[in-house]
Write the C-alpha coordinates for this entry.
Amino acid sequence: MQDYIKYQLQKANDTLNEVEIHIRNEFWNTAINRMYYACFYAVNALMMKEGVEISSHAE
Protein backbone atom coordinates (compact mmCIF):
# COMPACT_ATOMS: atom_id res chain seq x y z
CA MET A 1 0.00 0.00 0.00
CA GLN A 2 2.83 2.42 0.83
CA ASP A 3 4.35 1.79 -2.60
CA TYR A 4 1.03 2.61 -4.26
CA ILE A 5 0.75 5.84 -2.27
CA LYS A 6 4.30 6.85 -3.24
CA TYR A 7 3.56 5.97 -6.85
CA GLN A 8 0.43 8.14 -6.92
CA LEU A 9 2.24 11.07 -5.30
CA GLN A 10 5.07 10.76 -7.82
CA LYS A 11 2.52 10.75 -10.67
CA ALA A 12 0.97 13.90 -9.18
CA ASN A 13 4.36 15.60 -9.00
CA ASP A 14 5.37 14.54 -12.51
CA THR A 15 2.05 15.76 -13.87
CA LEU A 16 2.48 19.16 -12.18
CA ASN A 17 5.87 19.46 -13.85
CA GLU A 18 4.12 18.95 -17.20
CA VAL A 19 1.77 21.82 -16.38
CA GLU A 20 4.64 24.32 -16.35
CA ILE A 21 5.61 23.34 -19.89
CA HIS A 22 2.02 23.65 -21.16
CA ILE A 23 1.60 27.07 -19.55
CA ARG A 24 4.86 28.35 -21.08
CA ASN A 25 3.55 27.23 -24.46
CA GLU A 26 0.09 28.69 -23.77
CA PHE A 27 -1.67 25.33 -24.05
CA TRP A 28 -4.26 26.37 -21.50
CA ASN A 29 -6.74 23.51 -21.89
CA THR A 30 -4.01 20.92 -21.65
CA ALA A 31 -2.54 22.66 -18.59
CA ILE A 32 -5.95 22.60 -16.90
CA ASN A 33 -6.38 18.93 -17.78
CA ARG A 34 -2.99 18.05 -16.30
CA MET A 35 -3.78 20.07 -13.13
CA TYR A 36 -7.00 18.09 -12.75
CA TYR A 37 -5.11 14.81 -13.00
CA ALA A 38 -2.38 15.96 -10.62
CA CYS A 39 -5.09 16.63 -8.03
CA PHE A 40 -6.76 13.31 -8.84
CA TYR A 41 -3.53 11.37 -8.22
CA ALA A 42 -2.80 13.25 -4.99
CA VAL A 43 -6.32 12.74 -3.64
CA ASN A 44 -6.13 9.07 -4.62
CA ALA A 45 -2.99 8.73 -2.49
CA LEU A 46 -4.58 10.58 0.43
CA MET A 47 -7.72 8.47 0.35
CA MET A 48 -5.68 5.27 0.23
CA LYS A 49 -3.57 6.49 3.17
CA GLU A 50 -6.75 7.18 5.16
CA GLY A 51 -8.24 3.79 4.28
CA VAL A 52 -11.04 5.15 2.11
CA GLU A 53 -12.11 2.69 -0.58
CA ILE A 54 -11.97 4.13 -4.07
CA SER A 55 -14.00 3.08 -7.08
CA SER A 56 -14.09 4.54 -10.57
CA HIS A 57 -17.02 6.61 -11.78
CA ALA A 58 -17.52 3.95 -14.45
CA GLU A 59 -18.62 1.38 -11.88
